[in-house]
Design a protein that fits this description.
With about 200 residues, the chain is α+β, with helices and mostly antiparallel strands. About 35% of the residues lie in helices and about 30% in strands. The chain is built from three helices and seven strands, in the order H-H-E-E-E-E-H-E-E-E. The longest helix has about 50 residues.
Length: about 200
């Protein structure tokens, strides 16, 4: 009889420990999941609000209300989420929110988590692409004198240039392209400035 009581107490303690562990782990997982998605969702929401600000030229309240809907949709959770805007300044691109989530825990009770986040929108300036001119000459003399090019390419900075078809010269064999410093051309490197190459003959 004594053994049965010990087994029953041990089993009950084990079940309670497991239930507590599941509740704590479930709550931690829920917190980590929502915290990680909240920052990303908030940044995306603010960016959309700022880029679509022209849709609400007269009313910041309308823009904020639309932003709350966007944020709630972006959080992508099946639990009850309440979003409260603590501060919104569309001119400065600042948004601070408090998010409250209510969710069912493994033991059946309702868990509540709250987070506060603030983001400031800093637009990235779109950079105009920079193009570099890459010229190919039939000879070193032609390159040095500025004679007519065999081929000219305009290549976006950071891209690679592909060597043109080999030129032809009477009674000579094409050996490859050399750069302005007399090194054999390496077309595997990205173009970062204006370049000139000339044909080497043998």
């Amino acid at each position: 009889m004594k053994n049965i009581v010990i087994i029953f107490i041990s089993a009950t303690a084990g079940v309670l420990t497991l239930a507590i562990l599941m509740t704590v782990m479930g709550r931690m997982n829920r917190r980590v999941e929502l915290e990680s998605s909240l920052s990303s969702a908030l940044e995306k929401t603010l960016e959309r609000m700022m880029t679509e600000n022209h849709l609400y030229p007269d009313s910041q309240e309308e823009a904020v209300a639309e932003g709350i809907e966007m944020l709630a949709a972006a959080l992508d959770t099946d639990s009850k989420v309440t979003v409260q805007v603590m501060k919104a300044d569309m001119e400065k691109g600042a948004l601070a929110v408090r998010v409250k989530e209510e969710f069912a825990q493994p033991d059946g009770s309702i868990g509540v988590e709250e987070w506060e986040r603030m983001v400031i929108w800093e637009p990235c300036e779109a950079k105009e692409p920079v193009y570099c001119s890459v010229r190919f000459y039939r000879s070193k003399e032609a390159m040095l004198s500025g004679a007519e090019c065999y081929k000219t390419y305009s290549v976006m900075e950071g891209e690679r240039v592909i060597a043109p078809a080999e030129p032809f010269r009477e009674n000579a064999r094409f050996l490859g392209w050399k750069d302005s410093n007399d090194y054999m051309a390496d077309f595997s490197l990205p173009v970062e400035q204006e370049r000139a190459y000339y044909a080497q003959w043998g």
